[in-house]
Amino acid sequence: MRSDSRSRTRLRRQEQRASPGMELWQLTARLCAPFATAAKIQNDLRILTERLARINDNLARKISSRNEYDKTIQETEAAYAKVRAHSRQSLAPARRARRHLLTRPPSLVCA
Description:
Blueprint: H1 2-17, H2 24-103
Helix pairs in contact: 1-2
């Protein structure tokens, strides 16, 4: 809103400064300058909006990929924990047998 009132004030000043001998094309150029600036700003805004949309799409794809990787990592860690638990269970009887053999008196051990 401030820029609109500033633009109007600037136009009024330019119109007041316009001398009677000023060419019509010069007056037209002064009056059209703010419209050209507005058109340029609107074009810049359109370009930046499109760029922001592309960046947001790219970011969404990257976030989706990261979530998939996180899920895969969690599944892999769970499978690894299962494997460790099974290996501990499988090794327990062997450890008991080893302990049993080591605690036997030497005379009872087969040669």
